[in-house]
Amino acid sequence: MEAAGASAGRNTRYMMEGVGARVIRGPDWKWGKQDGGEGHVGTVRNFESPEEVVVVWDNGTAANYRCAGAYDLRVLDSAPTGVKHEGTMCDTCRQQPIFGIRWKCAECSNYDLCSVCYHSDKHNPRHRFYRITTIGCERVLLEPRRKSKKIGIRGIFPGARVVRGVDWQWEDQDGGNGRRGKVSEIQDWSAASPRSAAYVIWDNGAKNLYRVGFEGMADLKVVNDAKGGTVYRDHLPMLGEQNPGRSGPHGLAIGDQVNVDLELEIVQSLQHGHGGWTDGMFECLGTTGTVVGIDEDHDIVVAYPSGNRWTFNPAVLTKVGGGMMVSNEASTSQQFSVGDLVQICADLERIKILQRGHGEWAEAMVPTLGKIGRVQQIYHDNDLKVEVCGTSWTYNPAAVTKVSSDGSVPGAASGERLSALLKKIFEAHVSGDLTEELVKAAATGDAQKVDELLKKGDVDVNGVFAGHTALQAASQNGHLEVIHILLRNNAHVEKEDKDGDRAIHHAAYGDEPAVVQLLAEDGADLNARSKRRQTPLHVAVNKGHVDPAFDYSLEPDVYENTITMHCTTCNFKNTSQPEKVRAGRWKKSLFRTNISLTEGDVLRNTSDCIMRL
After folding, report:
1. InterPro entries, per this entry (predicted)?
2. What is the pLDDT of residues 208-250, one digit of tens each?
3. CATH assignment of 257-319, given 2.30.30, 1.10.287, 3.40.50, 2.60.120?
C-alpha cells in the first residue's frame, strides 16, 4: 500500500509539474502527421491520467497521447514549466539557476550546460554528459554528442507566421480573428517560466507578448512554421518515463516527513561533505520537516515551517510519515461528503505544491493551516470548497484530512456534541476588529449579525479582511440575504481584491448563478476582467460552471472566445468513453475526439456545444 501511495504521489506531482513542457514526437509515435511531422513542436496542456496527456501542437491540432508503457512524446524543453536546478549555473551562457533540463559533463569537474547550450554544441562534443531532468531524479549517462543524430525542430519560432490560438483572450489586438502576425522572438512570460512566450508583430502594426507554454496555454497557432534550431533527439527524455520525486537508495522521496533524531555530535559529524552544519540548523532538532529535493549526490533537501531549507546526509534523517501526495482518485466524492469536517494540512510547503491546479495558493490562506473546516461543496474535479476560519477556499482533496465521517451523527447526545463543536469552529471570533467580524459574518451567511454591525455605523461596508470584502465573501458562498443587506448599505460591487477579482468573479467561482443575477441587476459589470484578464464567464468555464445567468449583457468577443475555450476544454477533459459532463444547471453529453483547431472546426465544436446546451 505504501509503495502504491508513493507511486501515485510521484505521478500526481509529475502531472502538476509537466504542464507547459514543449514536446516533440517520441519513439512509440504512431499517429501520422498530427504533429505536423518529425521535429514539429507542441505544448503539454494537461494530464488526463498518469498514462495519458493532452498536447496542443503548434499547428493547432489537439489530441491525447500515451506517456506510460508506450511513449509517444519526448520533452524538448521543460523550462516553461518552471522546473529549475537551484545552485547551478550554465558554464557557457551563465544562466543561473539552470531552468529545464540540466546537462552535467561526466568528464569534467563541476561543468554544467543548459538545454540551449547543450544542443548548440557548446563544450567538447566528444565528452559524455549526464542528463538531469529535475532535482530528485536519477541522472542518465548519454553517448557523446559527436556520435549522435541531430534533427531540426519547427513550430512557433522567430520568423513563423501565426494567428490566434485556442487560448486567445486578448480581444482584437491582432486586428481580428484570422489576422496574421510574425513571431520576432521567443521570450519569458515570467521570470519563473523561461521560453514560455512569443513576441509577435501583427500585420496591423500592433506588438505584444503571448503565451506559448506558460501554464499549458497556447495563445497562438502557426500557419507558416519556422526553424527552431537542431537538437539531439535521442538525448531528450521521454515524457512520463522519469518522474520527479523518485526515492533514492536511502528510501526517501519528495514529500516525505522526516525528523533528525540523532545526538547533535553525531549529526554534525555525519554532515561533513553533505552540506555541513551551521548554527541556524538547530531548528531542525525536534522539528518535523518535509523533503523537497534530492540532489545528484542523493543528499536530501528538507524544508521547515520557518521557511528555511537545509541539506542533509540521508543517514541523519528518520522518516516519520507517508508521502506527501495521494492520488486524486483516492480523494473523490465517495470519501468526502458535503458537511464533512476536515482538517487543513498544516505544512506550508506541502500545501503550496498540492494546491497547484486545485484552486491555487493564496497568502490569505495561511490562517487556515492546521484548522478544522467543513466541506460546503464538491466540484466535478473532486476539489473541495471548505468553510474554514470564517471564509471559504477551494482545496485539493489531498490537502485535507477527514475528521468526521459525515456532518451529522445519530443520537441526541452525539448530535448535541457535534452542534457544539460546529458552533465553536464557525462562530465568528470576537476580536474587536469590526471589519473582520463583518467579513466573517458575511462569509458564513449570518445576515442578522451583518445587519447589526452595519446599523452601528462604525464599520466600513467595503472594508477588507483576509484579502476580501464582505460582499466578495458572501458572493462566493451564495448568501443572498446577506448580499441584499450589503447592497442596501452601499457595498461597492466593483471593488477588486489583490488579484483584480470583483464580487461577480467570486460568485462565478463559487457556482452561484443567483448571486450573479443579483449583482448584475445592481449594475455589476459582467465583462469585468481580473488582473489575469479573466471575465466571470472565463472563471465559470474554468471551474466547470455554466449557467444562463451569464448569457446576457456579454460583449460578443468575450462570449465567443469563452464558449470556444469551453468547448475545447470539454473535449480535452472527457475520458475515452462518452460521459456526462457537469456544467452548472445544464448537462451535456460530449464524445472525446482528436480536435484539429482550425477556424471551421472550432466553430463547428462551438455550434454543437451551444445546441446541446
Report:
1. Ankyrin_rpt, Ankyrin_rpt-contain_sf, MIB1/2_ZZ, Mib_Herc2, Mib_Herc2_sf, SH3_15, Znf_ZZ, Znf_ZZ_sf
2. 999 999 988 999 999 999 999 999 999 999 998 754 444 444 5
3. 2.30.30
Count of CB atoms situated within 10 Å of the CB of 106: 14
Q: What is the pTM of this model?
A: 0.45
Report the C-alpha gap between 334 and 356 in whole angstroms.
Answer: 23
Q: What span, in angstroms and rounded, lies between the C-alpha atoms of 468 and 391?
A: 9
Identify the three-state secondary structure at position 520: helix
Neighbours of 171 (CB within 10 A): 13
CB 22 within 8 A of CB 76: yes
Residues in the chain: 613
Taking the C-alpha atoms of residue 221 and residue 238, their distance in angstroms, rounded to an integer, is 24
Q: What is the pLDDT of residue 55?
A: 94
**Taking the domains of the chain in order of start, what are their residue ranges?**
158-225, 257-319, 344-412
Q: What is the pLDDT of residues 362-404, one digit of tens each?
A: 777 888 888 888 888 777 667 888 888 777 888 888 888 887 5
**Helices marked H in 457-555 — which ranges?**
470-477, 480-488, 503-509, 513-521, 536-542
In terms of C-beta distances under 8 Å and separation of at least 24 residues, what long-range contacts does 102-109 make, across chains too? 102/131, 102/132, 102/133, 103/129, 103/130, 103/131, 103/132, 104/129, 104/130, 104/132, 104/139, 104/296, 105/129, 105/130, 106/130, 106/141
Average pLDDT, the chain: 76
In order of 244, 267, 349, the CA distances from 308 in angstroms are: 22, 18, 10
Q: How far is CA 613 from CA 80, 552, 584, in A?
A: 36, 15, 11
**How far from chain centre, in Å, is Cα 389?**
24
Tell me what pLDDT residue 206 has: 94
Judge whether 158-225 and 257-319 match in fold. Answer: yes
Q: What does the alpha-carbon distance between residue 8 and residue 11 come to, in Å, rounded to a whole number?
A: 5
Taking only Cα atoms into account, the Rg of the chain, rounded to an integer number of angstroms, comes to: 26
Point out which residues pair with 226 in neighbouring strands: 155
Indicate the fold that domain 158-225 takes in CATH: SH3 type barrels. (2.30.30)
Start-to-end CA distance of the chain, whole Å, equals 43
Q: Which of 305, 248, 302 is nearest to 275 (CA)?
A: 302
